[in-house]
Each structure stands twice: as structure tokens, then as C-alpha cells.
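Postdoc handover notes: sequence design on the structure in folder B. Input C-alpha cells:
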């Protein structure tokens, strides 16, 4: 087989076009306008790659047709054909090209009754988007002369509980999408022709921003298309439930432009009025009552968790959020100095949960309230630990009985300032109440980074100074509970 000319469309550019024709156009002719890839996105890509590699064990012993260079998939097309001609029955990254459209399939397997195609996803269900991109792959492969008996999505079974070595047959679920593919197949050549014309015309489509900018994927041209939207805009209305797009489509960009008589729900009204007048809400009576009910010694507790597609520890499931770290500030009486306690799991493959539980029970002692910020999270995690380690269930349930929520006064809008921008998350409440305290000096400044960093360490693929990074993780989590301490102190001044 001769090497085919470079493709016009690939599966990913086709899917870009299905999301937004402008995204397809910009991706082809103005790649420089793309937003930078965030560390969180990078972590998702890396996870996808390792899940894909693991899934190959479902059909071991195959030939890998991954091209040496990402820019030379045509070599992979030739190699795939050569493998098929040579009688190979299991091919990874099998690449095909038809009518200028390239599609690579994670696994192509020949069984007694014909070829079967498998696409691997690190998600826990099959979405319409996967059915759509599977349809394009089916179209390209079958038109390249390989009839497919079936085409399936291989995805993560989140009910799998690790027990010893990873069992790939339990970790993955295989679901045929052939029926959905047959239903959509007739539209594929129409869409391909539409996208090819768009690219050959070289005229940028005039497409306004919309919900398609984040569905099904966050578009990486938002920095370009959303330039006219101010940093703080109607899209920052919290818990918007569509009011943001309604306002935008009616011509309002900022909350200050919204007319006073515009119909908003109570929560939105508080945010919008605060932005306009700069006035705060402080309900002293309710705040005082909240403070009066606190029982000392008082503990401020915060967890950090991580989850991974492939579970690291026995007795845990894919994507289960596992506590690997906590910070605890204790104050014996309202006038005492604070004491600090902390736990950070080792990354030696040993399940950290039993040690974490034992130390947390000891550090929290037996009396006094345990304050959290968003009680549902810490309560849920302690409940999980009690289920996973029933030998500790009783003392863990006693901790749950002592939990209280420092978020409550802000969630209930007993204390609201316009600086909170409609939010009651600690990352908005802290700068509004305690502007002199912030995370800016810290290397790790938010929970996702902490989570991804620890996940890399636990999975053994962290690149960096482990000792230094562990210090940074401890500093970050300590800051979370110190922020709670300072917020509470500010409430006492009301
Ligand atoms: S940001 Fe929105 S409008 Fe712009 S290319 Fe992406 S999806 Fe299209």
C-alpha cells in the first residue's frame, strides 16, 4: 500500500466541527489562538494514556501501530494495512484513512466471525459523544475495506473493587455501540462534506459564544472568542441555572448593567444588588446564635482527597475519592493558643487509610466540636472510612456526631459582602473577610493541584522533588484550616 496523502480531517477535528464549526476552523488555521493547557487538563490526558495502555491487556500480544511522530499518521495507516495483510489478529492504534479522513482505533481484534473494534475511554459510562466518534471510526474503517462485526466502547467499571493485582477484565466494561452507529451512519458523509467545504472555503464562520463552548468539552479557544466578556461578568452569577445566558443574550455583560426591576431569584438578587450598591449583609443575631452553639475545645478539620481511574490501594474503587491528608487546628478555649496536627500519607504503596484513621481519632480526642468548611464533604469521607474499615466505625461515627459547618453563615447569607461574588466557597469568603491572608505565597494553591500531585506520587509517576513537594502539600492543607480559624475570629468580631 502506498502512503496516502495527509488527511484533511481526523476523528478529533471532526468532533471539533460537530461541537462548533468555528472551533474546527480555528484549530486548522489559527492554532496559535489556542489557550494553554492547564495542569489539570494535562493530568486528565496522562490518565487517559495509562488507561489506554492497561486496556491493551484485555487483548494481549498485539502489534502496536502507533506512529513515531504524531504528524505522520499516514505511516501508521500503511503499517496497519501491512499487519492485516500479514495475518495479525490483534492491532493496537489501528489507523485507517478514507476520503481524506483519518481514524485510529485503540484496538482492532479479529475473531472467528470477523473484525471487532474497541475504543477505550477513562470515563465510567458511554456518552452520545462517544457514540458519535465511534460512528466516524466505523465509517472510515468499513469504507477502507475492513467489515466490522462489532464496535464497542471500553470504559471504567466504577463498581470494581481492587483486591491484589488489577484484574483488567473486571476493571473495564465493554459495551457495543453498533446499533447507535447504524442509526447515525448516514449523516457522517454529509457532515464530512460540510466540514471539508468549510476548510477549503477558508472563511471563518461567524459563530457567537454559547453553551456549545463548554459542551461536550471545554473549548480551547475561549480565550479568543470570549475576549469581549469582562473578567467579572453575568457568567459569574453563582448557581445561575441559565439566567447568565438569558442575560447575555439580552445584551447584558456585567451584573451592574442589569436593570433594577429585572426579575431574579433571591440568591441572584443578593449578588446583583451587592455588586451595584457595594453593601454587605450581616445578620448579627443569626451569627451570634451560631457562635454561641460552638463547644470548646474546638477543632478545625480539612481533608485532601485523590481518586484515580485505576485504583491504587486494595479495598478501593476507580475514581473513589480517598483521604490522603488532613490538617487540624485545635483551640482548647476561646482564648487559648492554637495547636496544629497533620497527617500526610506516605507514597510507598501502603494503604494510608488505617494510619490516617488512627491518628485522626487520637488528634480529635473525644470532646468538643469539629468544624469543617462544607460538612457534607468531611462527613461523607469519614462515613466512607467507617464502611471500609468497620473495626474503626464506632469512634469514626463519634467524630461525625461532633461535626459542625463553618460554611453555614455564608451559605445562609447571614454574612455576605460583594467581594464574595455570590459564592460561599472558602476561596471567596477568605479574601472578603481576611484580605491579609491568602494562598499567593504557596507553591500549591488549590485542592485540584494537591490532589493531582499526590495521585502522581501514589501512582509512581511523579517527576520532581518529593521531599520538597510533601512540604508544599502540608503547607497548603495547613493554610486551609488556618483560613477557617481566621474566618471564625472575624465572625466573633461581628
Ligand atoms: S469558544 Fe465557543 S464559539 Fe469559540 S470556537 Fe470555541 S466553541 Fe466555538
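Designed sequence:
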Amino acid at each position: 500500500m502506498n502512503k496516502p496523502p495527509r488527511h484533511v480531517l481526523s476523528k478529533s477535528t471532526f468532533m471539533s466541527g460537530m461541537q462548533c464549526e468555528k472551533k474546527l476552523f480555528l484549530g486548522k488555521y489559527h492554532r496559535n489562538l489556542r489557550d494553554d493547557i492547564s495542569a489539570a487538563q494535562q493530568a486528565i490526558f496522562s490518565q487517559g494514556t495509562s488507561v489506554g495502555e492497561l486496556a491493551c491487556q484485555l487483548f494481549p500480544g498485539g502489534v502496536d501501530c502507533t506512529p513515531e511522530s504524531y504528524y505522520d499518521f499516514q505511516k501508521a495507516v500503511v503499517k496497519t494495512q501491512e499487519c492485516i495483510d500479514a495475518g495479525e489478529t490483534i492491532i493496537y492504534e489501528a489507523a485507517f484513512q478514507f476520503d481524506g479522513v483519518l481514524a485510529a482505533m485503540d484496538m482492532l481484534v479479529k475473531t472467528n466471525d470477523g473484525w471487532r473494534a474497541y475504543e477505550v475511554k477513562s470515563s465510567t459510562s458511554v456518552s452520545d459523544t462517544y457514540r458519535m466518534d465511534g460512528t466516524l471510526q466505523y465509517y472510515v474503517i468499513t469504507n477502507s475495506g475492513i467489515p466490522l462485526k462489532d464496535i464497542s466502547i471500553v470504559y471504567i467499571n466504577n463498581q470494581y473493587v481492587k483486591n491484589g493485582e488489577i484484574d483488567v477484565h473486571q476493571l473495564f466494561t465493554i459495551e457495543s455501540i453498533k446499533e447507535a452507529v447504524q442509526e447515525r451512519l448516514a449523516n457522517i458523509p454529509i457532515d464530512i462534506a460540510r466540514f471539508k467545504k468549510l476548510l477549503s472555503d477558508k472563511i471563518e464562520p461567524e459563530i457567537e459564544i454559547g453553551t456549545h463552548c463548554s459542551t461536550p468539552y471545554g473549548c480551547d479557544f475561549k480565550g479568543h472568542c470570549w475576549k469581549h466578556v469582562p473578567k467579572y461578568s453575568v457568567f459569574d452569577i453563582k448557581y445561575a441555572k441559565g439566567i447568565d445566558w438569558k442575560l447575555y443574550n439580552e445584551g447584558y455583560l456585567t451584573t451592574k448593567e442589569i436593570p433594577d426591576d429585572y426579575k431574579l431569584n433571591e440568591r441572584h438578587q443578593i449578588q446583583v444588588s451587592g455588586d451595584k450598591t457595594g453593601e454587605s449583609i450581616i445578620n448579627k443575631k443569626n451569627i451570634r446564635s451560631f457562635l454561641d452553639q460552638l463547644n470548646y475545645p474546638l477543632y478545625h478539620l480539612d481533608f485532601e482527597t485523590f481518586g484515580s481511574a485505576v485504583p491504587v490501594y486494595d479495598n478501593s474503587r476507580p475514581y473513589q475519592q480517598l483521604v490522603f491528608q488532613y490538617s487540624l487546628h485545635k483551640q482548647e478555649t476561646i482564648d487559648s493558643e492554637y495547636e496544629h496536627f497533620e497527617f500526610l500519607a506516605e507514597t510507598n504503596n501502603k494503604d494510608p487509610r488505617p494510619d490516617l484513621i488512627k491518628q485522626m481519632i487520637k488528634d480529635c480526642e473525644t470532646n468538643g466540636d469539629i468544624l469543617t468548611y462544607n460538612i457534607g464533604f468531611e462527613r461523607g469521607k469519614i462515613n466512607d472510612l467507617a464502611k471500609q474499615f468497620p473495626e474503626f466505625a464506632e469512634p469514626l461515627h463519634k467524630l461525625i456526631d461532633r461535626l459542625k459547618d463553618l460554611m453555614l453563615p455564608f451559605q445562609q447569607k447571614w454574612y455576605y459582602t460583594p467581594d464574595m461574588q455570590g459564592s460561599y466557597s472558602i476561596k471567596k469568603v477568605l479574601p472578603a473577610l481576611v484580605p491579609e491572608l491568602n494562598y499567593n505565597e504557596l507553591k500549591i494553591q488549590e485542592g485540584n493541584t494537591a490532589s493531582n500531585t499526590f495521585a502522581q506520587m501514589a501512582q509512581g509517576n511523579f517527576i520532581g522533588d518529593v521531599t520538597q513537594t510533601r512540604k508544599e502539600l502540608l503547607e497548603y492543607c495547613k493554610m486551609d484550616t488556618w483560613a477557617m480559624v481566621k474566618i471564625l475570629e472575624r465572625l466573633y468580631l461581628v
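Context for whoever picks this up: The longest helix spans residues 466-492. Don't rerun without checking with the PI first.
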